[in-house]
Design brief:
The protein is mainly α. It has a domain of 69 residues. 76% of the residues lie in helices and 0% in strands. The radius of gyration is 47 Å and the shape is rod-shaped.
Length: 122
């Protein structure tokens, strides 16, 4: 587009100069107010981000700790279940009279009436 030269000229009077100076002062004041507000908003935003960041970091640490405890509890539970299974097998065997007699003879050296037990030294 072509720009046309305007025939309108600016008036250079003390009133216009004062008005232009006042507009510059107003513009400068508005700029400072806007910058101060921007700094305050950025500061509040930074504090909130820092606060929530610490909260998230703390929560992640607690979650990791709880997960470790859960894992160790599962390991302990599996050990207890294995022990329970072996004890149930042993109880089941103890209800068998033949196994019970064999264990009593071997472990506690019991004998039937009229039997003699010989112990050999190794």
């Amino acid at each position: 587009m072509k720009q046309h030269k305007s025939n309108v000229t600016r008036i250079d009077t003390p009133f216009v100069r004062a008005k232009n100076a006042q507009q510059k002062v107003d513009h400068s004041y508005r700029y400072r107010v806007h910058m101060r507000r921007a700094k305050i908003i950025c500061s509040v935003f930074f504090v909130l981000v820092l606060f929530f960041g610490v909260q998230i970091w703390t929560s992640k640490r607690q979650l990791a700790s709880v997960n470790r405890e859960i894992h160790s509890a599962h390991v302990e539970l599996n050990k207890k279940k294995a022990t329970n299974r072996s004890l149930k097998k042993q109880v089941k065997k103890l209800h068998n009279p033949e196994y019970l007699q064999a264990m009593l003879r071997q472990k506690y050296h019991y004998s039937k009436d009229g039997e003699t037990i010989y112990s050999f030294v190794k």
